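Section handout, structural biology tutorial.
Before the tutorial, make sure you can parse a SMILES string by hand: atoms, branches in parentheses, ring closures as digits. In the record below the ligand is zinc ion, and the chain has 465 residues. In the tutorial you will relate the predicted structure tokens back to the input. Do not try to memorize them.
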Amino acid sequence: MYRYILPYKWIFLFSVCLQHDSYEPMFQHLYCLYLKGLITMLPDKDGPSGGGPCSTQGSSGEDPSVSLFREYLRLKTVHPEPDYDAALRFLDRIAEELDLPMKKIELFPRRVLSIMTWEGTNPALKSILLNSHTDVVPVYQEHWKYDAFTAVKDAEGNIYGRGAQDMKSVTIQYIQAIRRLKAEGSQPVRTVHLMFVPDEEVGGHKGMETFVTHPEFQKLNIGFALDEGLASPGEAFTVFYGERNPWWITIHCPGNPGHGSRFVENTAAEKLRSIINSFMDFRETEKQRLNMSQCFTLGDVTTVNMTMVQGGVAYNVIPAEMEVSFDLRIPPTVNLQGFEKQIKLWCKEAGEGITYEFAQKHMNQNVTSTEESDPWWNAFSTTCKAMNMVLEKEIFPAATDSRFIRAVGIPAVGFSPMNRTPILLHDHNEFLNEQVFLSGIDVYQRLILALSSVPAFPDETNPFL
Ligand SMILES: CSCC[C@H](NC(C)=O)C(=O)O
Ligand SMILES: [Zn+2]
Ligand SMILES: [Zn+2]
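Predicted structure of the complex:
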């Protein structure tokens, strides 16, 4: 099939047309071809896609870092069938531009994790990991203002696309920060690894969960990791030093079957009702606890949500089994053994023969130190302070790949530099403003230098060198 090849500035023209609803027939036609993948965009002749060190403006008037971010947003790494090959090609190109080696590890068929490495002047020291996932969650396109994979920028500079916050922005910010540092002639003392991980959005089993047990992971000799956080609507930036443990549980309630016209004893539905009441009553107390305390955030309480119910075959047949599933998120301060005992008690109280099983049951409760005496946290927080950034420390309410990193004993901070931004991860019309995005590159530039310059600890060596 014939593909047209057009320069980048055409994307700009398309987006202008979209913003102003001026569907000129010619543009409309070209835009349709672009959406169908029949037009390929070529870099403008003013340089590589990522642009130079100083964020010079491309011929479209757009900062090249923004253009690169928008290009990455257009790759359809969306579940259930993410185009990971497109992401790998894109990242290979970046590695070439940055002149950094890239290692690829196929964890499972079609699940490749890649690592770009900027070697430090003292590679014997523990390294810094800049982690990001390449996949994104699906969209309900009918609820979006624009196509979720065209990266439209509106008149206010808001860039719309699935992954704009979670977390393609952060990937490009890491990359552009390193591009600038290299162009300035900086060199890190500690080695810096950029890791691009598949399948975070579907639980991380074919991604980070497996990779932390891989010999190649050990070889990286990681001392400290940065990974995704959340946007924050106010002036302050949120940083996450731990996560709640996800427990996904299904409870099976067996019972006596019979005719729907009778009072059958000991039915599955009666047991199901008792189970639902126990979980939902607990939900209410935790909700009250959150609402009553000024100093609690969502990460400090247990959330309970009934997410699935199954059972029954016909209106007039009392079912022999019914089941209910809950999504529980448990803060690191909760005694997990005690909590499971409570679940067992609720099951016993509900009646005979009730069993349960877990689809997710994370037990590790490691948190990362935020003591000023901790050298990693100290480097992170003093750098932010020097940029007049206010940090709010929290427990991440959901689950990210950081949980696997912390579980193997490596400190990790969840941080996405997106203040003055509504939290829109996994939501319709996910966007990030280009100015907020660009400020984040400055933030990482300083953070990468500071973290990679944390002085050597006593006896710190890399056993793999
Ligand atoms: C437990 S695996 C699923 C991971 C997913 N992460 C996010 C950030 O949405 C979640 O918390 O549901
Ligand atoms: Zn994410
Ligand atoms: Zn996500």
